[in-house]
Amino acid sequence: MLIGKRIKDLRIEKGMSQQDLGDLVGVTKVSICGYENGTRTPSLETFDLLADIFGTTTDYLLGREVPIVSEDNSEFIGAISKDDIDIIQEFRHYPNLYGKLIKDVKRYVSLINKKMR
């Protein structure tokens, strides 16, 4: 389960034990273990608190956002949704169209929109 993997990875990245994280969100170590293994689901309140503790979004924890970092992995730039990645990957199947989109995004998105009407 992606949520559990993300929680575990972020917890380890922060140098926290399951007990440390449990203390911060007000649940037991067993609950944190369950979240990470996918056998338990955090409440919405706990889920939101986990995102705050890790300095991320709930969408990232759900696997709906992918972090973007600089080329040398030194700085966090932002995030992009899985849907946006799917769109970009699909456009790359059409190199001519993709090249035109890159050169003048507003114009070609407008043309696509007009064509869809």
What does this molecule look like?
With 117 residues, the chain is mostly helical. The protein folds into two domains: 2-63, 434 Repressor (Amino-terminal Domain), CATH 1.10.260; 82-116, no CATH class. It is 65% helix and 9% strand. It has eight helices and two strands; from the N terminus they run H-H-H-H-H-E-E-H-H-H. The protein has helices spanning 2-13, 18-25, 29-37, 44-54, 58-62, 82-91, 95-103, 105-116, and strands at 65-69, 76-81. It has a two-stranded antiparallel sheet with strand order 1-2. Helix 1 (2-13) crosses helix 3 (29-37). The N and C termini lie far apart (39 Å). The model has no long low-confidence stretch (mean pLDDT 88).
Give the ordered list of helices and strands. HHHHHEEHHH
Instruction: Briefly note the structural class of the backbone.
Output: mainly alpha
Helix residue percentage: 55-70%
Number of helix segments?
8
Instruction: Give the strand line-up of the largest sheet.
Output: 1-2
CATH hierarchy: architecture of the largest domain: Orthogonal Bundle
Radius of gyration: 19 Å
The rounded distance between the terminal residues' Cα atoms is 39 Å
Uncertain ranges = none
What is the C-level CATH assignment of the largest domain?
A: Mainly Alpha
> Roughly what fraction of the amino acids lie in strands?
5-15%
Number of discrete domains: 2
CATH topology name of the largest domain, in short, is 434 Repressor (Amino-terminal Domain)
What number is the mean pLDDT? 88
